[in-house]
Amino acid sequence: MLISFSDFARLKGVSAPAVTIAAKNRIKDAIVENGGKRMLDRDKALDLWDRNTKRNGSEKLSPEARARARRPLKSDNGSPAGEILKPTPDQLKTLIMGLPEDQIPGLDVSRERKEHYLAEVARMDALAKRGELVPNDGVTKEASRLGRQVRDLLLIIPGRNAASLATMQDAEAIKALLEAEIHTALRGLAND
Predict the structure, then answer these.
(1) How many C-beta atoms surround the C-beta of residue 186 within 10 A?
(2) What is the dihedral of CA 23, 24, 25, 27, to 10 degrees?
(3) What is the pLDDT of residue 68?
(4) 49-63, 95-109, 117-131, 167-181: which range is least confident on average?
(5) Non-local CB neighbours of 150 within 8 Å, separated by 6+ positions
(6) Measured on CA atoms in the order 98, 103, 109, 115, is the torsion positive or negative?
(7) Residue predicted with more confidence, 31 or 92
(8) What's the whole-number mean pLDDT along residues 152-175?
(9) Lowest-confidence segment of 84-88, 122-126, 142-146 by average pLDDT
(10) How far is CA 3 from the centre of its chain?
(11) Nearest CA to 62 among 74, 77, 49, 73?
(12) Cα dist. 32→39, 102, 130 in Å?
C-alpha cells in the first residue's frame, strides 16, 4: 500500500519534516515513484522506521512495531549472533559493503551491540581496579613457579630418604615415611 509522506507522518505521530529527513537515510528504501510523485511503501517504511530510529524511551510502540524492531540477526560463520568480534576497519568496511541491504543490522541493533561492548569494557576495568581480575601473564608466571616448586620438593624426597628406605623392611613403615615427606613438602607450599 502506497502512502504519502504526510500520511506516514500522521501514522507515526511525527512532523512531515521528520519523515522527509528520514527518507534521505533511514527509510529511503521504502520510497516508490508513482506517476512522477514520491510515495512510501507503507509496510516497508514502517519496518525501516522501527528498525533504524533511536528510541527515546517515551514513545509507545505497538506490538507489531516491537516485533519488527527486534528481529534476531543470523550469523554466517556459525558463531552466536551476539558475539563481539574485532575486525580491522578495512575488514569491517569490506564486510558491510558486501552485505545485501536486508542483512545490514538496523541502527538500534548496532547501537545496542556497541553499548553492550562498552559496558563489558567498563565492567572489566572495574574488576581490574578492585583486584578481582588479574592479567593472564601474572597468573601464568605464578602457576609455572608453583609447578616448578612442587616438582623440586617432590624430587628431593628420594635423595633425602634413600638411606632410611634402604634399611627398612616393613612396607607400611616405608609408606608412612613417604606419606609424611609428601605431606611436609605440600604443607611448605601451602604456607608460601
Answers:
(1) 13
(2) 20
(3) 56
(4) 49-63
(5) 185, 186, 189
(6) negative
(7) 31
(8) 88
(9) 84-88
(10) 40
(11) 49
(12) 5, 17, 57
The helix (H) or strand (E) run that includes residue 40 is strand 37-41
d(CA 154, CA 183): 10
Strand partners of residue 34: 37
Task: Return the residue matching grid coordinates 565492567.
Answer: 123
Pairwise pLDDT comparison (119 vs 81), residue with the higher score: 119
Which of these, 54, 51, 52, 81, lies nearest to 64 by C-alpha position?
51
Cite the DSSP H helix spans in the chain: 5-12, 16-24, 42-52, 63-69, 89-98, 107-130, 136-167, 171-190
DSSP codes, 54-74: ---S-S---HHHHHHHTPPPP
Q: What is the pTM of this model?
A: 0.33
Q: Residue 131 corresponds to which amino acid?
A: G
Q: 173 is written with which cell numbers?
A: 613403615
Residues 6+ apart with CB under 8 A from 58: none
Matching residue, cell 559493503:
97
Whole-number mean pLDDT of the chain?
Answer: 79
